[in-house]
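[audit] Reproducing an earlier prediction to check determinism. Same input, same settings, fresh worker. If the C-alpha cells differ from the archived copy the diff job will pick it up downstream; this log only records the rerun itself.
[audit] input (461 residues):
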Amino acid sequence: MSHDPRSAVPPRQTTAPRSFATAQVQAGFDSSIAENTAVPSIHQSNGFEFRSLSEARDLFALRREGNIYSRAANPTVLVFEKRVSELEGGIGAAGVASGQAAVAVALLALARQGEHIVAARQLYGGTVDLLQDTFADWGIEVTFVDQDDTDAWAAAVRPTTRALFAESISNPIAQVLDLGAVAAVARGAGVPLVIDNTVATPYLQRAKDFGADIVVHSATKFLGGHGTSLGGVVVDLGTFDFTAEPERWPQLTETYRRVPDGSLVERFGATGSPYIALVKTKYVHDLGPSLSAFNAFQLLQGLETLDLRVERHTASALEVARFLDAHPAVARVHHPGLESSPWHANAQTYLPRGVSAVFAFDLPGTGDADADFELVESFISRLRVIRLVANIGDARSLVAHPASMTHSHMTPTQLAEAHIGSTTVRLSVGLEDARDLVNDLARALEPLTVAEPQLAGSAAR
C-alpha cells in the first residue's frame, strides 16, 4: 500500500526570506529528497505530502499506490512488511502494533458477525481472551478443539466457518502442531488455515511449506529479539483462492466501497494481496492498531540477526531442557526436543532446524493451590540470571508462572486442557551462556531436591 518515496518531485522554491516562526517549522527540509542511506530510514512522519490534489484523490481511492498517512502505511513499516513476507514466502504483509493486533485483524478480515472460527485450545492466554470474550461480543463464535485431535478439527467445521487457527508451537507447553493434518482439514472445509508462527519463527518453520495460508507473528518476540519494541505482522502466503467460492468472501469479491472501480480481488488480485489490502484499508485504518516507524526500524534491526539468534536460543534451550529432565526436583519437562515428549515426532517433521526455545516444566505439586503457588514463588525468587518477565523471545532468559500470569483468566478446565498446572513454570531461553542458566536453575532447585522426600508421590515423573 506504499511506494518508494524517492520519486522525482519538483523542489519547493523559497523566493523570499521567511520569518522565524515559518523557518523553525520548514527550514532545512525538502520533502522531495530522500537520502541514500545504507540501512532503512525511520520515516517518522504522520502524513505525506502530495504532488497535487489529483494524486491525493487517486491515492485515497486506491487507484494508485503511495503514501497517505502512517496509520495505514509508512515507508519504514513497508520495508519491515516486505522483509517478513519474503522470509515466510508470502505475497504481502501488514505490520501492526502488536501480536495481539495481528491475530485480531487477521481473523476479523475473514470472519464477520454470525460467522465462525475453529481454534486450538492450546493458545496463549491473551489470544483465548480475545477469541472467547471479545469476538463473542462482536457476534463471531469460536469453537476450541484439542489441536492434536484431527477428527475434532473436522467435526467442529460448520457452513459458517471462515478460518482454522492454531499456533505452530504452543505457548507455554511447546506442543508442536501437526500442521499438515490440520491444513488438510482446512482445505477440505474450503477455508484458510491461519497459523501463529511467533515461537517457531520463519527460520525454524515456514508454515507455507506445510499447508498454511496466512501467518501471524508477535514481532515483539523473536523477530525483534531484544524486548524493546511491540509489533505484529500478518502475512498472506498466497495459497488460498478466495475466488473459488466467491459468495463466502463478499468482503473481497464484491464491490468494495473504498475502491470505486470494483472489488479488492479485481483491484489487487493480479499484482498483490486483496486480503492484505482489506486488512490495511479497513481494519488497521478503522481500528488504528498501527505499527510506528520507530518500532518498525527496531524490529528490522532484530530481523537482521534472526537466524544467528534462533540457533543459539534453541541449542541452549535443549541443553537446559535435558538438565531439567534429569533433575530429581522436576516432575516433568515439556520440550519437544526430548525423546520422551509426545510431540517429538512432530518436531522432527516440522522443525528440522531446531526446536522451541520457549517451553515449560512442572515442579512437584502439593495438591494445594496456595501451597503450590508459594512453592513456585520461592523457586523463582532464588533465580539470579533468569528474570521474571511476562515476555518471550528476548535476548535475556525469562521465567513466568502461566497459571497466575499469562493464562490466569482461563478456567481450571481450560488450564488442564492446555496441560498447564499450578506448578507449571514457563522458560524462554535467551542468549546467555547455557552453563550459567543451568547453574542458576540448579541453585534455585536445590532446596526442592532436599525437600523432595516430603513431596514424594505428589507428582509422577
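[audit] rerun output stored. Observation attached for the diff report: The mean pLDDT is 91.
[audit] end
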